[in-house]
Amino acid sequence: MNTVKPIPAHRLPDLLKRLPKAELHMHIEGSLEPELMFALAARNGLSLPYADVAALKKAYVFGNLQEFLDVYHAGTQVLRTEQDFYDMTWAYLERAAADHVVHTEIFFDTQTHTGHGVDTDTVINGLHRACVDARSQLGISAGLILCFLRHLSQAEAFEALEQATPHLDKLLGVGLASSELGHPPEKFTEVFAKARQLGLRLVAHAGEEGPPAYIWSALDALKVERIDHGVQALKDPALVARLVREQIPLTVCPLSNLKLCVFPTLAQHNLGAMLQAGLVATVNSDDPAYFGGYINENFTQTFAALGLSSQHAYQLASNSFEASFIDASAKQAYQDRLAELFETFE
Ligand SMILES: [Zn+2]
């Protein structure tokens, strides 16, 4: 890791804002802002179980992951047409561009939507069209990662993968999301093996609320290349040693962890300790419309709470490119942009 010039604490918020970065853990359905949710409901002639935007926002208080998932799934009901999926994705991409995200690997699922009678083609085509437009109009590269819902069966995950197979050229990889506890990664061993055969990259949520054992099995049974969250890894020194040795990236989401009570306060978050241990941690927004902020908000609040420095900022941004699924030359181009910001930052 390069040593970078120190930047005074009062200049850090501006540095963090302008940092070129990749976002690797963001569920597109979790970027659906209340205002757009109401607009889509109106466009589709649907009603929401909340009187207005203010009433909906009041429901965004969660005691754990499951309480969040219940509210979140209610919000996805307004998504019906390809244009709805496009509009939601475009809104996120514009927001990400404003935060100096230069590359994003977007999570989505199809099982929620097929459960509402919306087919896989509608979902993927809407998301993909927004990603294509983002490259030309916003200068962001964007890829799509299909997440299986782990509270459902592996047979249902196979069905989702099969329905997505005609769109393989639009997909970067597969992931594993939704209720973690009681649904260990190994439940999905065969469907991940199938995805690997199809040439897809592999990631999984593990060690958010669940134990370090879930991180081990995500690596050994699913053979994932990246762990989403992974904050519980620090409870297991042998696991930390392995993650460091193999340079397995962890996509950490501090405001999500705070909102879902994984840590009681941001000051108690272990992001600083993860970096200290040599883990390839990154900062991401998870479900920004629900958790109180997009990626830059995650950076600024976490840096303030933990007293992190410009060196940490450099490392986190650099990690985000190394952890991404872009090719080596694109990685180098982004690393150069990052180094240039530090050289010219006043
Ligand atoms: Zn997530």
CATH superfamily caption of the domain at 26-178: Metal-dependent hydrolases
Number of helices: 17
> Which bin fits the share of residues in helices?
40-55%
> Approximately how much beta-strand content do the residues carry?
5-15%
How would you summarize this macromolecular structure in one to three sentences?
Catalyzes the hydrolytic deamination of adenine to hypoxanthine. Plays an important role in the purine salvage pathway and in nitrogen catabolism. Helices cover 49% and strands 12% of the residues. It is of the alpha/beta class and 346 residues long.
Question: Which key features would you list for this structure?
Answer:
ADE; TIM Barrel; 346 residues; binds zinc ion
Mind explaining what this structure looks like?
With about 350 residues, the chain is α/β, with parallel strands linked by helices. It has a domain at about 25-180: TIM Barrel (Alpha-Beta Barrel), CATH 3.20.20. Helices cover about 50% and strands about 10% of the residues. The protein is built from 17 helices and 8 strands. It has helices spanning about 10-20, 35-45, 55-60, 65-75, 80-100, 110-115, 120-135, 155-165, 190-195, 210-220, 235-245, 255-260, 270-275, 290, 295-305, 310-325, 330-345; strands spanning about 20-25, 100-110, 140-150, 175, 200-205, 225-230, 250, 280-285. Strands 1-2-3-4-5-6-7-8 form an 8-stranded parallel β-sheet, sandwiched between helices. The two termini are about 20 Å apart. Bound molecules: zinc ion (ZN). Zinc ion (ZN) binds next to loops.
